[in-house]
Amino acid sequence: MLRLAAIAFAALAGAAAPTAAGRTPDTVDLIAERKAIEHFQSLDQKLQDVGWKLAHGNAAFCARTLPSVGLQLQDLASYGGPDIARAALEMKGDFAVQTAARGSPAAGSGAFVRNREIVELDEIDPNGWDAEEKRHWQRLTRVHDWIDAALVRKGSVAIGFVDGEKALLEPVTICATRFELAGEGKRAVADGKRVVLGMNFPGFSYDEEIFAGAVAHELAHNLLSHRAWLETNGEKRRNVRLVEREADRLMPWLMANAGYDPQAAYRFMTTWGPKHDGGLFRARTHDGWDERAEFIAGEIPLIEELIERHGFADWSVHFTREIDPNAGKKVARGD
Q1: CA angle, corner 259, sides to 152 and 74, nearest 5?
Q2: Domain that holds residue 22
Q3: Single pTM value for the model
Q4: Same domain, yes or no, for 147 and 78?
Q5: Do the Cβ atoms of 303 and 260 come closer than 8 Å?
Q6: Is 168 in contact with 158 (CB distance < 8 Å)?
Q7: Are 199 and 40 in contact, with CB atoms under 8 Å apart?
Q8: Number of domains in the chain
């Protein structure tokens, strides 16, 4: 998790209290605090489970990949009241398991139970790294970057728990995107490296397979390098509509390779669209929800044919682009 997720943690740790003045573990409802934290973690778990399936299932077709174990940690220094969070979670230090994505090496080990306290990363105790007294998100970023670097450097990471047990994790390859849960917002966005959903994103109420359509749409933006393309070619209405259409059309491909029914991408749009498309006031950067659903449906016959023939749908070869991905790029010329 990077800064947005850390900000969401900072918004917890005392969320049940009406004011921050004079708040201590003895003056707040620790049960309510723990419930607030666990609610955030449950939403994050759903996002990580779906994100992992999509990123792992499509790794063979992604231009950029990375080794991953599917583990997210939490650092209580990033909370608004670390002492309150520590008391609510009954922790001694600051680091513990946040999520282990279903199907990942971390989840498969059985060792990474939510809120299990961690004191060692390859013989380094991250609790000893400097942090400010509260709302310090930088240390958590540093730890996740450190784990990623260790997986690239030596192909494993050993993690020690406060009870003295240790677990050795070896990674698998996934598409190079992180999935993060942010604070109170309702939006889902992609910035080229991350997919970020707000806690109040309506899609969290959907069944997993339909919710996966929303995550797949945002992941598609990253896999097709839409942010970089728009920065090069301009965020004109026509350009934004083209990349949004591409992301819609790639949704069922990503979902099929992850083991979801590609038809669920269509069901996502027909579930989401009527309530959230905006009607007469919708942004003209997007097609209407019914048009978007038709574009998605148009991809499914080819996907199903490829799945039946090969067991996978290679979108890196068979997906037709709406844009020229090389448009606007400077071409290096020889002497």
Answers
A1: 45
A2: 3-175
A3: 0.89
A4: yes
A5: no
A6: yes
A7: yes
A8: 2
